[in-house]
Each structure stands twice: as structure tokens, then as C-alpha cells.
Amino acid sequence: MIRKTLILGALCLGLPTLAPAQQGEIFIPGAGTAEPAPPPAPRSALAACLANPDAASCAAVSLGGEGTAFESATGAPTVQFETLVLDLDDGKVHAQPEPPAKAPDYAGAAPAPTHGKVALPSVAITIEFDYDSAQVRADQIGKLASLIGALQDPALQGAAYAVIGHTDAVGSYSYNCDLSRRRAASVTSALTGGYVTLPLYPVGFGEHVLKNTYDPRAPENRRVTFMRLPAQYDHVLATTGAVCGY
Prior knowledge:
This protein is α+β, with helices and mostly antiparallel strands and 246 residues long. It has helices at residues 2-13, 45-51, 55-58, 141-151, 173-193, 234-242; strands at 82-87, 92-96, 117-122, 161-166, 200-204, 223-228. It contains six helices and six strands; from the N terminus they run H-H-H-E-E-E-H-E-H-E-E-H. The strands form two sheets. It has a three-stranded antiparallel β-sheet, covered by helices on one side. The radius of gyration is 26 Å and the shape is globular. The model is unreliable at 2-22 and 63-79 (pLDDT under 50).
């Protein structure tokens, strides 16, 4: 009787009536329609560059910015990229100055390539070393501190990186490959010791990718650089290790 009176009153006032409750059904506003939250914006220019390594996202980071030096063939205060072209069939690598023709698949939207060549941009943050040394120089600690802060940025959650060691062209092929791997391991250890929890894979390229091709013995060739790996990176990572025959 009370419910009937309420319904009649609602009709008289032009208000919507209450539909009979369905037993066992609960209505939750917005249920099933919510979209996943977008990833947070990077907190620094260096984090933005590492998250999406291209000319646009890295333009705000100069050679002297944030205490981090970037590779540059001219020494000008601009970021220059070193695109690494990996041959998944032959286990070889070469560098080119042009960006990849196709943007890397960092989201896992497409099947991972298993054959052919894959071009990936290297952000090319240089950690330099003394001759015949795998110990990080004291004057490079500021760069490592900047890297640690950027790699801890929530915007990079889910990213993985190849930490690539390089040498100059002095010494034997096999020795340089081993030295470059130890340099990459040294930097990786410093980063993980600074509580970087992202997957970091140290690999050595020896003298395969020289920064200064005009002077293969130049000290700037003794370095470690960083390359963000695609979402499905098994074959890419295997190829980076095959460059020096690991």
C-alpha cells in the first residue's frame, strides 16, 4: 500500500517511478566502462628521452643538461642519435645516423620479428672509461646519478634496456669484446646498486660500433650506451649477445 502511494505521488509530480528491484542484481555506476589510466608523464627531460628515444622527446636534453653528456659527432649542444641496425639472422650490427624507418614496438602491439634486420634508436648516453679499464671514472658519477633518477621514473615502468659496452680499436678483437662486456656490467651494477629495478641487460659490442670513426683509437670510443628494447625482445637481445659471440 505504501509503495503504491509513492508511485501515484511520483506520477502526479512528474517524477520518474522506481522500477521493481530485480532479485540478485546490483547496479554499480560506471562498471565495465572505465578505461585504463594513461601512463604518468615523465618527470624530467632525461626520463622522457629514455622512455621514447626520438629527436622530439630528447630535444630538451642538451649535452650539459641534467649533468649528463650525450654523444655528439660535432660536439654541438644537441642530442644526436645512433640507430643500431641488428641483423637477427647473422648476429651482426652496424650504426646509422638516420632514425628507424618504423617506430619500435614498445607496447607489444605486433608480433616480434624473428628474421631480417631490426633498427632501434640508441639514446647514446655516454659513460666514458680510461684506456684498458672497466672501472667507471670518478668524473662520470654525476652522469650515473642522473641516469638512476631517470630510470626510477614511474613513466618508464615496464621498459627494458640493453646496456652496451664499447671499446676503441686498440687491442685484439676478442679482448675488446670481453672488455666491452665488463664495462657494460660495471655500469649495470652501479645502476642496480642505486635501486634501479628495470630489466637491464649488459652486452658488449667491442669495437664494432665506433663513435669516432675517423680516429678508432680515440678515447670517446671507450664508452657505454643505452638502447631501449622492444616489448618482445628475445631475438633482439640474443642478437646483441651474438655480436661478440656470447
